[in-house]
Amino acid sequence: MRTSRPEAFSDGVFAIAGTLLVLELRVPAESSDLGAAVLRLWPAYVAYLVSFLTIGIIWVNHHTLLEHCKNVDRRFLYLNLLLLIAVGIVPFPTALVGQYILSEDGATPALVVYGLGGILIAIAFTGVFLYATHDQRLVGDRAAARRIRDEGRLFPIGLAAYTIGIALAFVAPLASLAVYGLTALFYALPLLPLPARESR
Amino acid sequence: MRTSRPEAFSDGVFAIAGTLLVLELRVPAESSDLGAAVLRLWPAYVAYLVSFLTIGIIWVNHHTLLEHCKNVDRRFLYLNLLLLIAVGIVPFPTALVGQYILSEDGATPALVVYGLGGILIAIAFTGVFLYATHDQRLVGDRAAARRIRDEGRLFPIGLAAYTIGIALAFVAPLASLAVYGLTALFYALPLLPLPARESR
Amino acid sequence: MRTSRPEAFSDGVFAIAGTLLVLELRVPAESSDLGAAVLRLWPAYVAYLVSFLTIGIIWVNHHTLLEHCKNVDRRFLYLNLLLLIAVGIVPFPTALVGQYILSEDGATPALVVYGLGGILIAIAFTGVFLYATHDQRLVGDRAAARRIRDEGRLFPIGLAAYTIGIALAFVAPLASLAVYGLTALFYALPLLPLPARESR
Amino acid sequence: MRTSRPEAFSDGVFAIAGTLLVLELRVPAESSDLGAAVLRLWPAYVAYLVSFLTIGIIWVNHHTLLEHCKNVDRRFLYLNLLLLIAVGIVPFPTALVGQYILSEDGATPALVVYGLGGILIAIAFTGVFLYATHDQRLVGDRAAARRIRDEGRLFPIGLAAYTIGIALAFVAPLASLAVYGLTALFYALPLLPLPARESR
């Protein structure tokens, strides 16, 4: 099977999940001091940024993986579907965090749900990733497969980071959100010094 | 006509219909016990999962069908449009089920509407499928056409499954939803042992 | 300029505008007689069907036009953007019609707005269409350009049909909606007997 | 890395951000004088038009830039992601402006937020643009790179225009919105006389 349509379907879900996040930025109902009301929405802006970054960076990694796949099979499509289902849910925990991170009672459950969503995505991505690279199944080139698998060692770190974020949700909500944002950046940063290897 | 743009348009509708499902996960309005409120939304999560799986697996089958089509004609595009109209409506019955499956009076109509939506999709898919494979019209390769048509025998089973789900809606709502979920998995599972045939 | 990205952007807007229509099917708030409440939404289902059909059939015609274009220029992209802006607004009049077609006072303005939206789309499509086919500007093949232009004679009929629909909005709202639906089908039907000419 | 998937992901976000704008056109709740209520929404229509035009014209420029890129690297993808995050937020300031531009107290903050959103996009676009064209990094052809960079001189003008719009928000809200609309047209107009250069 060609990889072009799985890419198109995945790109669609990634792009929509990211862009739907804006619907959680609700226009304040009061106009008497709209400026202050808009500023008070800052947690929703931060949540929007963290989630869009997370989705975008997962997309970059997904893109890199599929670019090395010669073809895909049905099992891959179903594993990929689980990943998309996990990514598609992101607007919900994002809305929870944006709305409740400053609430005394609501911040902890909101951030726990956010972290659990991140863990779901990490597990699903690892499944897609291991299936595609194992035994040169879909990635034909042995060197590329090894290099991609080496990057895959980063996944346990992601799982650990989300677990730390969940633990922090109980004591320091803003620190928990910071961990989620830094986790996204972590997956972007280590690869930044090596763009030359990626270009053709 | 090339198949690339019908694929892109169809991929778009499938991806959007799946990703819009998340908008039915409404952020609870109470913060005093947000954790419990989020847990009480479990029927909406199950409905999200079942519907996204259903859409994703229809997409895989649509993808497989179009991959074997050399070209498409206008009649195919209109039949395909009816399929997309049916798929695009999925977020509505999903919201009904997520909101009312635990309600004494609302569960039955919600699940009946969901099943009727499934039957609409099954009929539209069968139309697209038969049109494309009949008489090697769009699928040029005779062997591929026969193999695809053999898979098509599974459609009456789908129709029967949705009818059972509708009947169960009157006596056991959760069993009805389980049937809808298993129907989606049924279309994924029988093909799982044979991924090698699909790969190039 | 290649036609692939304008196609992708246009396909995205068409697919999203169609699929967003489902958000106007609002889940009824009462569960005591949900079945009846869901049935009472029938005008919204009809409006969903008419609008998705309209968007889908415009898409088919847009697809056919661009398939014959060797390349596009910036002017074409801006004309196409006006078309997409007109198509993107469709969910709004659709929601108006779905909600107010049975209201004594609201039906007429809702259907007038719907018809004006249709006229906007017809004008924008004609602009795109004439620009692309005039003087073999973008459609290189002379015979294809002539055949496409011949189809273009159908556009005044569309304008007339929407005008009739607007007039009917003042005396017979349901007849007005029927005219809008038949207009969409009109653009699909005359080409149905000739699929062979379209296939490659 | 191929440019096709970044294009698909970007096209998706542009198309979705544009099409989601329609969700801010809220169906009026009163049916007694629906016609007048729909007319009173005119600021929302203007905001829809200005924002869709802005997004569409950014898309055309993004399209032109990427068409000249032979390949992209990871750094480009991350800069592009920042641009998409900025574009994806557009529906929020658009809703603010559509709802509050006629409000005595709300117009100024709504238009300031809109202008700040425009500045964010201008900065992000400039980053993507300079990265891609600097030192023939991604644009291989020297002449094309120079011509594209020449067009880039227009960006400071955009920044200035948005700053003027923000200043006008404090004294003349409608003039401020007019400046935002003219800024979008400015990026479309200067290139209109030269479509021949763009065609292949």
Number of strands of chain A: 0
Biggest chain pair contact, residues each?
A: A-B, 40 and 42 residues
Rg value of chain A: 18 Å
Strand content of chain A: under 5%
Seen as an oligomer or otherwise, the chain set is homotetramer
* Shape category of chain A: elongated
Brief overview:
The structure is a homotetramer of 200-residue chains. By secondary structure, chain A is mainly α.
What does this structure look like?
The structure is a homotetramer of 200-residue chains. With 200 residues, chain A is mainly α. Chain A is 74% helix and 0% strand. Chain A contains 10 helices and no strands. The longest helix of chain A has 27 residues. Chains A and B meet through helix 1, helix 4, helix 5 and helix 6 of A and helix 1, helix 2, helix 3 and helix 10 of B.
List its traits.
mainly alpha, disordered C terminus, homotetramer, 200 residues
